[in-house]
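Box 3.1. Reading complex inputs
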Amino acid sequence: MNPSISLIGAPTDIGAGSRGASMGPEALRVAGIVPVLQGHGLEVLDRGNLTGPANPWLPPVNGYRHLDEVVAWNLAVHQAMHTELALGRLPILLGGDHCLGIGSISAVARHCREAGKKLRVLWLDAHADFNTNTLTPSGNIHGMPVACLCGHGPQALIEIGGVVPAINPKVIRQIGIRSVDAGEKRLVHETDLEVFDMRYIDEMGMRHTMELALATIDANTHLHVSFDVDFLDPDIAPGVGTTVKGGPTYREAQLCMEMIADTGRLASLDVMELNPALDVRNRTAELAVDLIESLFGKSTLMRK
Ligand SMILES: [Mn+2]
């Protein structure tokens, strides 16, 4: 049965190191996300945009930039995502910077506890996003969401889902990683996070990577994808604030999305860090929508 989709816009760059991800939701709409999904026979409701505090653009305090504002936005995201999941709908969070993954995934985890579902989180990103206030070089909280979800972070963020940690690190699979800070790397190893970095993808290929990342998913699994657009190679996706060269190509990204679609288990999605201020005629938004289309079953291959 086709899922009913709810779009939730979160127009903020409160956790980012450059301004402009606040325009991401509108760029995805302009790129046609609603008609593209409808074209696959999906029912789509655009819930509009959440609201929250403006970006005061201040320096970090105790290793966190804009902590109070980040908490406010994440509480709004948590509530909105959880509401859609409780209605039996498939929410797509239109970011917004990746700090909002805390509110989104804590809501998904809470829903899974309530519904007796197993959770699997795919974190598609150039970065591990596993910093803490003592490890971070910048204080930007969009570099910390995975650590916060695993219980490393300020109380106000780690407890948003009602349980600390919000998720067991074992449910996460990180894919496409190619930029990790030194201290962050240590914590990733200590936590035993399952990371398929670009070296792994280079050596083993995207197909083998995705087979492993999706292994043991069953009919009772809720699959959440947190898609940071900086996952993609900057040659094809320039419209993000934290580009890192050497990411997946167009074909590799398509295969990644198609193999996720093949599981039939995708139940929630974040599309994060798209920054129209850095984009070229909205091409990164159009690429993101193209890949989302594949996530929902468009096959670029000759398949029946
Ligand atoms: Mn990220």
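In summary: The pocket of manganese (II) ion is lined by residues 98, 125, 127, 129, 228 (CB under 6 Å).
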